[in-house]
Amino acid sequence: MATSSKKQTSKTTVKAKAPVKAAAKTTTSAPKAVKATSTVDKAQVKAFKEQVEKHLRTTIGTSPEKASKLAWWQALVATVNEDIFGRLTDTQQTHAKNDTRAVHYLSAEFLMGRLTINNLTNLEKFDVAREALKEFGLDINDICEEEPDMALGNGGLGRLAACFMDSLATCNYPCVGYGIHYENGLFRQEIRAGKQVERPDSWREYGCPWEVCRPESVQNIPLGGYVEKQTAPDGSQCSVWHPSSMIKGVPWDIPVVGYRGSSVAILRLWESRSTEQFNWDVFNAGGYVDAQTEKSLAETISKVLYPNDSTEAGKELRLTQQYFFCACSLRDILRRYKRSHHNDFSEFASKIAIQLNDTHPTIAIPELMRLLIDEEGLSYEQAWDITSKSFNYTNHTLLPEALEKWPVYIFEKLLPRHLELIYEINFRFLNGPVEAKWPGNNEMKSKLSIIEEGEVRKVRMANLCVITSEHVNGVAKIHSKLVKEDLFPDYAQLWPNKFCNVTNGVTPRRWILSCNRGLAELYNDVAGKDWPLDLDKCEALKKYADKKEYQDRFMKIKHDNKVALAKTIKELCGVEVDPNALFDVQVKRLHEYKRQHLNLLYIMSLYKSLLEDPDQDIVPQVFIFGAKAAPAYTLAKDIIFAINAVGEKINNDLRIKGKLKVVFIPNYRVSLAEKIIPAADISEQISTAGYEASGTSNMKFSMNGALTLGTMDGANIEIVEQAGIENNFIFGLSVEEVQKLKPRYNPWDYYNADHDLKAVVDWLDSDFFTPGQPGALSSIKSSLLNNGDPFLVLADFASYKAAHQRAQKMFKDKAKWAKAAMINSATMGIFSSDRSIKDYATNIWTLKSQLIKK
C-alpha cells in the first residue's frame, strides 16, 4: 500500500519564488471554493509575509532560498503565535482580575488534530497567510501538511473534548482543560496484507511549536507505600500516607483560540518524569542501563494512550496514568485557587467547577478529599461538602465493560490512602441515604455500593461518580433517558434532579469553515459572515433548497470535495474511485456495537448480486471505511482484515464493471476526517439502537451535506427531528424493540430464513476472499451465530438492505438528493458545540461569559 513519507517531505528544500499570479495548485487538504474569496488587505499580507520571513531567519535559522517545507511551517506557526500568546495573556489577566468561577475539564483524551489552519481560521487570518505564502511561491495547504496530528485521543470522546475547548474559548467562558501529554498517543495504524499493525505515533518527535512547557508549575505526585494511623495529643486519629515513590508531573500548555480571537483558553497536559533523572552512583559502578531504570519507569506513565490492560502490569499502568493526571490537575487547581483565597476554602465550590469526562478521571474525587483532609487540614465533613459541590460527571456509554472497575488489591498497592477514603465515602453513603430510603435492604446496598463483592473485590468508578457529583448528564436525549432509567435507576430514585441531558455538539469552525471552504463561502453568501458564531443562521439556506442554481452550486462543492478525496484515496490506498459514484462512508472506532460488519455483509450481498447480473442498473458506489481497533480486540481486527480482503477482491474484479469499490483508509485521524467528511454522500451511523451514547461524526457529516443512513440511536434521533426523516434513511429495530427481542433472540432463525443472507455469511467460511486461507474470516461468522450475535446484526440486515435500496433510488433523482443534502446541512444549528457548552454553563456549571479586555 502506497503511503507518503513524512520524513522525506520534511527534508525537501523549498526555494522561495517570485510572486505568482496564478493561484497555487489546490491540494487535498482544503477543497477549492466554488466562488473566489474576498479581496485580502495588501498591507496585512505584506506585514504577515515580513513576519514569516523574519521568523524563518531568526527563529528557525534558515533562509527562504534553502528552507524546507518543515521550516516554512515552523516559521508560519511562530508568526501566528505572536498574536495568540498576546491574547492568552489578556485572557488570563481578565480572569485573574475578576476572580471568575471557572470550569476545569478533566479528560483522558483531547483529540486536537492539526492546529495551523484551524488557528488561522479562528483568528480570521487564513486568507492573509495564504496570500503571503503565495508570494513566496508556496501553497499554504502543502506547507500545513507538514504538521502532524496531535496524537492525544482515540475517537469521539477526545474529539468532543477538543470541540468543547474551542467553544469554551469562543464563548469566553473561563476554563482550563486538563489531560495527559502522551508521547505516542494511541498508535499509528498500518495495513499489511490487509491486517492492522500498530506502530508508535511519535507526533512530537522533534517538538511541537504550539506548546509551551511551564516548569514553574511542576507537581510531585506520591504513589504506592502504606498508610499509618497516628494519634494526636487530643486523642483524635489521622491517617498518614507514606508513599514508596514520587513522580514528577511536568505541564505543557497548548493555547486554544476562540473564534475571532475572542479569548484564548489553555489545555494543560501533564508529562510524567522521574524525580531523579539519573543515578550517578549506579552509573559509576558500571550499571549503565540500571542507572536510568527509575527514569524509564516514570516516563512510561505518559508514553501511550490506554495501555493494554489485559495484563496485571497493564491494569496497574492504566490506573497509575489516571491518578497521575488527576493528581497533577487538582494540585494545579488548588494552587490557582490559593493565589487569590490563600487557605480559605469557603469559596472553593463557588469558584471551581470540575467536569469528569467519562469515568477515566474518577480518581480525582478521593484525591481532592485527600488533599483537603491530609494536606489542607479540613475535616472529612468540610472536605465532602466541597467535593460533592465541585464535581460533575458526563456518562458516555451504556456498555457495562466501559464502566470502569478496578480490583481492590491494585488500589491497596498503588493508592492505599485513596482506598481508605473510598471505603469511608461508601460507608457513609450506604448507612445514610440508602438506609434512609430502603431501611434494612442489604440487597439494595450491595447493588448501589461502590465496592463490588465477588471473587475479586472491585471499585466501581461509575458508582463513585454518581454518588459524589452534583450533576450527572448523558450526551443525547435518548442516552440520558437510558442513563437515568436503565443504567442508574436506583440512584435516580434517590436524587431525581441530579440527572440531566446535554446533547453533544461539534465546532462549526473546524468542521465547516476550516475543512469545507466552498460550503463556508456559500453560507457567507446566504447567511452572512457571523454564522460560525450562530449556526442557526445557516437555516437561511433552506429557502434555496428547491432552487436549481443553488442545488447545482451545493452539489458542485460536494463534487469538488469528492475529487479531492479520490486523489487522497489513490495516494494512500492505490485504488481509483469515481467522484461521480455515491460515496458511502463509515469512519469511527472499530467496535462490534458500531456494526462495521453489518455494512460488510451488505457490501458482500451487493457484490453477489452484481456477479449474478453485472448489467443490472445500480448506482455506482464507493464504500469508504476508516477505523482503528484496540490492539487486544481480536474480533475488531478480524473485521478490518475482512473489509480489506473483500475490498481487494471486489476492486480487482472486472466482471462488475467498476460499479462497486471498497476502500479502507489507514490510520484514520482528524486530518483525514477533514478530507473525508466534506466528501461523503451517505453517513453510516448504524449502531444497535440503545448502544451509541450520542455520536459526533453523525453531526459533522450532516453539517457537510451527507444524508444519514442509520438507526434511531444516540443523536441520530435528534438529527432526524431537525432534518426530517424523509431526508435520511432510517432502518432497524428501535431501542424498545431491541430490549424486547434480546432475551429471546436466536440469530440462526434469521440466518436460515434469508437465502441471500445465509449465502454471504457462509462466504466467510470459504477462501473466496482469502485465496489459500479457508476460514480466515470464520471468526466473524462465529460471532454472528455461535456467539449469539450480541448486537443483532442479522436481525437488522433486511431493514438495512432496504434502506440502501431507498438511498440508491433517491441518488438517481439529482434534484431530490440535492434538496435533502442542503436541508441536512442547513438544519444542524442545534448541534454546534457552542450550544452544548452554553447548556453546560447554564444548567451545570453556573458559569458566566467574560468579556476579555486588552
Automatic annotation (TrEMBL):
Coiled coil: none annotated. GO terms for molecular function: glycogen phosphorylase activity; pyridoxal phosphate binding. Keywords: Allosteric enzyme, Carbohydrate metabolism, Cytoplasm, Glycosyltransferase, Pyridoxal phosphate, Transferase. This is Alpha-1,4 glucan phosphorylase. Its EC number is 2.4.1.1. Gene3D superfamilies: Glycogen Phosphorylase B. Its cofactor is pyridoxal 5'-phosphate. It is found in: Cytoplasm.
